[in-house]
Amino acid sequence: MRRLTAGWGRLVASAGIFGVLVWRLGTGPFLDGVRTVDGRALVAAAGLALLTTVACAWRWRIVADGLGVHLSLPAAVAAYYRSLFLNLTLPGGVVGDVHRGVSHGREVSDMGRALRAVGWERFAGQVVQAVLTVVLLSALPSPVHSSMPWIAIGLLVAIACLVLVARARPRDGRVWSTALGDIRDGLLARKAWVGIALASAVVVVGHAATFVIAARTAGVTEPLSRLLPLALLVMLIMVVPSVAGWGPREGGAAWVFGAAGLGAHLGVTTAVAYGVMVLVASLPGAVVLVVSWSRRTRLPVPTESRRRGSSTCLTAHTPS
Fold first, then answer.
1. Interval 283-292: pLDDT, tens
2. Residues 93-139: tens digit of each pLDDT
């Protein structure tokens, strides 16, 4: 019941944001965002999506190995593409992650660890994204530049507390001890955290580059030093649960671009172009979904039928 209510809440919130934007800006920025996307932008988005998806799959594989539920990198890449497509086409933005966790859990016969591996992998990526965003926003001009020292202090304190708690001895309680064990083994192990940080950094850079390309496609001519902080801010807003990112992304871009003096309409156009580019770049996930579905629908030949067929063949070729 709670999941259903949360899903409808995200849908209503996204629709409400769209309604406010259309009321204030009209439909022009939305239509321009679709029209401005060209073939070169789509090819660039597809290439960057391949890079970021492989990096995400590598990060997932590191965390899963740390928790003892191994998977190969090719299988992780295929599952992550499928997850990306489902996240972008179904309400909630997390259906694909749940699906790959469940699928992996069935393969390794350990649903709990597989689902936790997906959750910790996403959590680690968001932590690295937050750190990189704070660092760059502290160094580059942005609408929130004056607030960054306080935000940076708060983030450092939160991370330090998390590390100290994770390295402490587990307290009584199965859930608590399991979470701390997952963090130590899956995220903070010597061979894990470096790879997780590197993979997450590649993902952030790839997504930011895609947003910059969308902005250039939409007609933004500002220098990269001014455009990159805006991209990072919008990407941070996109973490908010929504319907495939639509709604908060456009609302956040309208606010960020408006505060930067570029105009809210240009922010909406850029966000829509980005959404179209990312959606097209996720289409290989649809192929993976269809292939996996077709494999599951193939009914295996019953054992008794195989035995009868083998006996018939042996009888036919046995000399009398």
1. 999 999 998 8
2. 788 999 999 999 999 999 999 999 999 999 999 999 988 998 888 88
Label residue 308 by pLDDT band (50, 70, 90). very low
Instruction: Kindly report the backbone phi and psi dihedral angles of residue 41, in degrees, each rounded to the nearest multiple of 5, phi listed first.
Output: -65, -40
Q: How confident is the model at residue 13 (pLDDT cuts 50, 70, 90)?
A: low
d(CA 121, CA 186): 9
- The 3-class secondary structure across the chain, one letter per residue, is CHHHHHHHHHHHHHHHHHHHHHHHHCCHHHHHHHHCCCHHHHHHHHHHHHHHHHHHHHHHHHHHHHHCCCCCHHHHHHHHHHHHHHHHHCCCCCHHHHHHHHHHHHHHCCHHHHHHHHHHHHHHHHHHHHHHHHHHHHHCCCCCHHHHHHHHHHHHHHHHHHHHHHHCCCCCCHHHHHHHHHHHHHHCCHHHHHHHHHHHHHHHHHHHHHHHHHHHHHCCCCCHHHHHHHHHHHHHHCCCCCECCECHHHHHHHHHHHHCCCCHHHHHHHHHHHHHHHHHHCHHHHHHHHHHHHHHHCCCCCHHHHHHHHHHHHHHHCCC
Residue 66 CA to chain centroid, in angstroms?
20
